[in-house]
Amino acid sequence: KKKLIEAAEYFCSSHEDNSELEKQAQVLGLVLEEQKPKDFLVIPEVWNVIDLFCRVQTQWRCTGGVMYGLDYNAVRYFIDLLEIKNPLTIFEDLQVIEAKIIEILSREKK
Question: Which residues lie below 8 Å from residue 61, measured CB to CB, with a gap of 6+?
C-alpha cells in the first residue's frame, strides 16, 4: 500500500520546471526546498491500478466545490471496459489512492 500512497502524493504534487528559479536562488545565496522528481517509477505490481486511476482521475464526485470521492459508476465502467482481472483487489487499491488524495487536498484547503 505504501507505493500506492506515494503515487497519490506524486499526483498531487507540482512538477514544474524550476531550473530558472534555482539559478536565481543560487545567485542570491538561497537554498530552495527539495523538489519532487518529475517522473515516478511505477512497479509492475501496481501498474493496473495506476492505469485505472489515470483513466478515471477526472471522475470525482463534488459538492460545493469539495471533492469527496470518485464516481464508482465510472470506475466500474472502466474496470469492465478494460476487462481487469481481480477487480475487487484493483478497486481496493484505487480506494487507497483516492483516500490519500482526498486527505492531501483537505489538508491543503485549510
Answer: 67, 68, 69, 70, 71
Determine the straight-line distance between the first and last CA of the chain, rounded to whole angstroms.
26
| 36 — pLDDT class (breaks 50, 70, 90) | low
Neighbours of 4 (CB within 10 A): 22
- Residue 59 vs residues 15, 67, 76: alpha-carbon distances, Å: 22, 10, 11
- Asked whether the beta carbons of 68 and 62 are under 8 A apart, the reply is yes
Whole-prediction pTM: 0.71
The identity of residue 71, as a single letter, is D
Neighbours of 110 (CB within 10 A): 4
pLDDT digits (tens, 9 = 90+) for 50-108: 999 999 999 999 988 888 899 999 999 999 999 999 999 999 999 999 999 999 888 77
> Hey, what's the cell of 14?
507540482
Half-sphere exposure of 44 (CA within 13 A, CB side): 0
